[in-house]
């Protein structure tokens, strides 16, 4: 069935000879987008277990990755007329207008520069904007939207719309490419008037030196062992920490606090009602030190001011709050 689907897709895109199937272009897109989170997970595991060595790497991971990623993509564009993911699936870039190739820029300086920007800088900016949206959205939930500037409110309203529009544009280009109505599977390729073709052995960049050939083979082989490395590192640290975890679990469970702040006790209403505002709960949030559930805004403000659970009086901090996500 998979072979039939690939043959059908190739037939649809074969109106312009040399175009790859939609499965190939989507596969290289998925590979390109999955490398960053995989490597970031690797550094997260390392930072959690050796923060004095790898903590700074994880804190500046996005910036460090963008710099290294730019160098890697420059290498593959210069030597293979393709990005790393495109070369992995035996694809190449072909400009649709005349360019002046040079030794280090066989695609032409302008296309080479735009290609590196769209491959590395553009995803980095997308990621930072998404992180900023999540931060502002979280602060909005904290404060209930009070004291928020108009710019932040506009940003909260517009970002989901723009993100949905961009995803719709990507889907449209993928569909038009799949049925053979377009040479571009992405608007980014159309912007620089460059299409993907099946790699031609007669079309290549500069002749590779020993170091360049080693780098290409090393990075290509890294994809095959990447998943194994991630699993091995997780297993290694789990194996090293297994004895300490068992030691902690063997300790007797401590008794609950005996000194409860009497003035902080409040009656607990029926299920589904917040003990603080006595209304139906919104954004259910549990206090992990006591197990009681409140409205998110109510308990956040109370704990921030009093540093204890309003029902039991147990000492509580903001990081002891856990939002509960119920199925809709």
UniProtKB/TrEMBL annotation:
Keyword rRNA processing: no
Predominant cellular place of this UniProt entry's protein: membrane
Keyword Metal-binding in annotation: yes
Residue span(s) of domain Pex N-terminal: 29-238
A Pfam entry, by short name: Pex2_Pex12
Pathway: Protein modification; protein ubiquitination
Transmembrane regions: 154-175, 211-237
Stored InterPro entries: PEX12 (IPR017375), Pex_N (IPR006845), Znf_RING/FYVE/PHD (IPR013083)
Localization terms from the record: Peroxisome membrane
General function of this protein: Component of a retrotranslocation channel required for peroxisome organization by mediating export of the PEX5 receptor from peroxisomes to the cytosol, thereby promoting PEX5 recycling. The retrotranslocation channel is composed of PEX2, PEX10 and PEX12; each subunit contributing transmembrane segments that coassemble into an open channel that specifically allows the passage of PEX5 through the peroxisomal membrane. PEX12 also regulates PEX5 recycling by activating the E3 ubiquitin-protein ligase activity of PEX10.
UniProt protein name: Peroxisome assembly protein 12
Organism: Clavelina lepadiformis (Light-bulb sea squirt)
């Amino acid at each position: 069935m998979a072979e039939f689907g690939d043959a059908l897709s190739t037939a649809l895109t074969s109106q312009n000879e040399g175009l790859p199937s939609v499965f190939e272009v989507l596969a290289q897109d998925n590979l390109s987008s999955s490398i960053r989170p995989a490597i970031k997970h690797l550094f997260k595991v390392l930072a959690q277990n050796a923060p004095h060595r790898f903590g700074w790497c994880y804190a500046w991971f996005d910036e460090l990755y963008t710099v290294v990623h730019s160098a890697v993509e420059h290498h593959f564009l210069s030597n293979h007329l393709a990005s790393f993911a495109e070369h992995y699936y035996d694809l190449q870039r072909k400009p649709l207008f005349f360019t002046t190739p040079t030794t280090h820029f066989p695609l032409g300086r302008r296309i080479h520069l735009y290609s590196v920007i769209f491959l590395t800088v553009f995803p980095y900016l997308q990621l930072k904007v998404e992180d900023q949206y999540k931060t502002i959205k979280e602060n909005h939930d904290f404060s209930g939207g009070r004291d928020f500037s108009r710019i932040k409110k506009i940003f909260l309203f517009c970002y989901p719309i723009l993100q949905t529009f961009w995803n719709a544009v990507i889907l449209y280009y993928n569909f038009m490419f799949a049925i053979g109505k377009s040479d571009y599977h992405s608007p980014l390729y159309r912007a620089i008037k460059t299409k993907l073709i099946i790699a031609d052995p007669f079309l290549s960049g500069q002749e590779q030196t020993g170091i360049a050939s080693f780098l290409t083979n090393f990075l290509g082989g890294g994809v095959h062992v990447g998943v194994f490395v991630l699993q091995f590192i997780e297993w290694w640290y789990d194996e090293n920490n297994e004895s300490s975890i068992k030691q902690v679990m063997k300790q007797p469970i401590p008794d609950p606090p005996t000194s409860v702040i009497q003035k902080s006790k409040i009656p607990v209403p029926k299920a589904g009602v917040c003990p603080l505002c006595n209304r139906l709960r919104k954004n259910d949030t549990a206090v992990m030190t006591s197990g009681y559930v409140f409205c998110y805004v109510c308990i956040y403000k109370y704990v921030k001011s009093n540093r204890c659970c309003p029902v039991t009086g147990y000492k509580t901090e903001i990081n002891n709050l856990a939002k509960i996500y119920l199925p809709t």
